[in-house]
Amino acid sequence: MSLPPETAAPRAAHDVTHGDVAKGAGAALLSRLGAVIEIVAQPAYTLMFGLATYGLYTVLWSLVNLVENVADLGMTSALQRVVPQAASEDAAVAALRSALVLALVPCTLIAAGASIGAPWIADIVNVAPADRPALATGVALFAWALPLWAFIEIGTSALRARRAFGPEIRLRIVWEQVIRLVVATGLWLAGVDTLGLLIAHLVSLTITAAACVRLLSRYYDLRLLLRGRRVPGMMHETALAGLSVLPSNVIGRVFSDAPPVILNLLIPGAGGATAAGLYGIARKLSSLIQLVRMAFGYVMGPLASAVARHDRRAIQPLYGFATRLSTVLALPIAATIIAAADMLVRFFGKEAAPAATVLIPLAVARAVEAIGGPAGAVQQVASKRLQPVVNSLSGLAVAALVATVAFAVLPDVGPVAMALAVGAGLVVSSGFSVWQLHRADGLNPFFPPFGRAVGVALLACGAVFALLEATRLLPFAARVPLLPPIMFGGLWMSVRYGLGEADKDAFGKLAARLRLRRPEPTTINPGRTPPLP
């Protein structure tokens, strides 16, 4: 007999179910919807400030992300490994304190150096002539986005390490994205051109960082941050956990943020800023597919860490479920983006039309990557520390080789060549993660019923493609309203028929609301005479 709720035994930290994975991924997806708002805001930014200025903003923000991922010494990943295994609140807060010290000190010093050296940095960035006068000032200001972003990344990582996936919703959507759009619009109306986007970004990061402190106080005893007892070895353990995954984190960020910077440096003048802008548009749109994989990565990291401490074999069913769910969600989204690429880039203005060709290879690569599920996140917390480095270096080597060939064959379409190279690298890196987990740890996500999941997802992709191709007969204004229902219809078909009943149990009441289950058969009471028709 089950205990009443008030006396029921609490679940152990390592007692993780499919429902925990689904609930956490749902909350993480909601928290990452800030990226969707960002995608919606990008057309407004290009229309207000122009494609070249948007390209400059893309380059500077990419540089901040690249530097932050090196200077934070891998602390965001370290917390996913250390905090779930902490034996006490003192130990958990000590890990957070160690991460903040190890990351913020170098980021602050680098920001100060970049701010002082802004005139020299401005000389090597290719921009439109209209953006040149304010460029040095913009670099000096925007350099301080580095420590702000490092704090936000560590803070939100600390929340996820406590399985608090939902609180990011307010940070990522309300504060970071909406305020950025509001401030940018206000500055544009006030006549601020080049600096408008940069200042708006700094304001939104500052408010987000302040909100992050308040949220951290709900899940950690921040009084211990300064006055807590010293936990021997915690600084070393946190540093080792971060440094072990730092190379793979950096290479992953290189795939995302280095291409706009490289294109800007290779193509002189306004052409470099425009090329960076085109690639930035394609990258933002393809990131809709990446959101699914990132959500499961965020969830599976701390959950797998908690499980691995007690029984590594328990990771297998969670890993397989997350991979099936990632597949049935990501593939219909990818099909929609690929089939409607020309329509999507039109929202960014006529200058953005070439971005459609850049978008397609990136979307294909993100779709293949999603089929591999959260392999990278599981590997970071459950495998040998050097394995993620090998995977990332393999992907980077392939990307460099493809880039060399692609730029030689397609010298006039740099963004397309870059997209092909990045796509090849992403696929190889993801494939190596899946292979190594299977070979070294015996974890295989492709056991039945994965075949059903991927088969139905591909059928849903075919339906999405066919319907979107049919809409080409309609005017643009009539095609746009049809895009969301076609995509969501493909998603429903993929989830409804691609997942087994056991998998859908993890959705709880949501499965019934979305009609994901087969209707229960009606039974006739044999003691009654059925009514006449």
Automatic annotation (TrEMBL):
Q: What membrane topology does this protein have?
A: Multi-pass membrane protein
Q: Which InterPro entries match?
A: Poly_Biosynth_Transport (IPR050833)
Keywords, A to Z, come to:
Cell membrane, Membrane, Transmembrane, Transmembrane helix
Source organism's superkingdom?
Bacteria
Name the residues that span the membrane.
99-122, 134-152, 173-191, 197-217, 238-255, 261-279, 291-309, 321-341, 389-410, 416-437, 449-468, 480-499
Question: Which residue stretches, if any, does this entry annotate as coiled coil?
Answer: none
Localization per Swiss-Prot or TrEMBL: Cell membrane
Q: What is its main location?
A: membrane
Q: Name one GO cellular component term.
A: plasma membrane
> Which protein are we looking at?
Lipopolysaccharide biosynthesis protein
- Organism whose genome encodes this protein: Alterirhizorhabdus solaris
Q: What taxonomic lineage is listed for the species of origin? A: Bacteria, Pseudomonadati, Pseudomonadota, Alphaproteobacteria, Sphingomonadales
